[in-house]
UniProtKB/TrEMBL annotation:
It comes from the Bacteria. Residues 1-20 form the BRCT domain. It comes from Proteus mirabilis. This is BRCT domain-containing protein.
Length: 68
């Protein structure tokens, strides 16, 4: 599953805490994990597999929330 799809379908809109390690997204409270897809070498970049843009967005949102 792509991180883009998780965000797009609202899976993370639940006010819970998650952490990511080695391509695995884990819900801290439930202990459930989702293995994230990764773009392979030479694969075209599309919105759904542009991990750097998605992580940049998440980090900027996180910084904005911390400022408030």
């Amino acid at each position: 599953m792509w991180l883009f799809d998780i965000i797009k379908n609202g899976t993370l809109v639940d006010n819970q805490s998650y952490f990511v390690s080695e391509g695995i997204l884990t819900n801290r409270r439930l202990g459930k994990s989702i293995t994230l897809s990764a773009k392979s070498k030479g694969q075209w970049t599309y919105p759904h597999n542009d991990e750097s843009a998605i992580w940049h967005f998440l980090n900027s949102v996180s910084r904005d929330v911390e400022k408030r």
